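Exercise 7. Given the components listed, write out the predicted structure of the assembled complex. Treat all entries as one system.
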Amino acid sequence: MHKDLKDRLTNISQKIQAACLEAQRSEKDVKLIAVSKLQSIEVIKAAYSLGINHFGENYAQELDKKVLATPKDIIWHFIGPIQSNKVKLIAKHAHWIHSLEREKVAKKLNDALEKERRKIQVLIQVNIDQEESKSGINSNNVIDFASHIDVNCPNLILKGLMFMPKINQSKKDKIDSMKNITALQNTFVNKFPACNVLSLGTSNDFEESILAGSTMIRIGESLLGRRS
Ligand SMILES: *Cc1c(COP(=O)(O)O)cnc(C)c1O
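Answer.
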């Protein structure tokens, strides 16, 4: 398993390097987040031993269990839908949240963080292709939601936007999605200059995402192997 993991990491690192070269961007500006949902503690430890220290989780209870059993200097990214009854666990452990999309949840998180005496860096999830089944807010509401967080949630440090574009779309539609993302990102950063993080790209599309300006790619199965 360890050897496979190492090979997969080498393969992905080479692809990241090539995409950065093509985009004329520095590799330092693209953070690799290993999405470890439904993966074992052993897999996380093995990836950590290869130098990965950013991990992404989708479920609060799983995050809780894993944080307690893994090295203390791991940076944890919460990337899944946030259930209001789980905000306490997320407030306790996560360093980043990529999936903020509701004012009510933002307020609950802010209150829970107050009790924990912590702050969390957050990204607003945007449903760029307006898919019924997908989480995230509509592009038109991004500025208002960001202003709301800015004014009302001092424990949430707004850093940027997160996207999960449609998978399995035609090449042309994929390029259109990426263009829409880049345009929205530019408008957003104009308004909120400190919020230049762009979380975009999974196993499927991380190379195109780097070309579109992604600064955080979230890679699961193609790095850590099939989820159980
Ligand atoms: C699971 C997940 C990923 C990783 O997907 P892979 O296809 O395994 O790379 C990335 N982002 C989010 C929000 C996810 O839920």
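Discussion: The mean pLDDT is 96. Residues 35, 37, 58, 79-80, 164, 202-204, 218-222 surround pyridoxal-5'-phosphate (CB under 6 Å).
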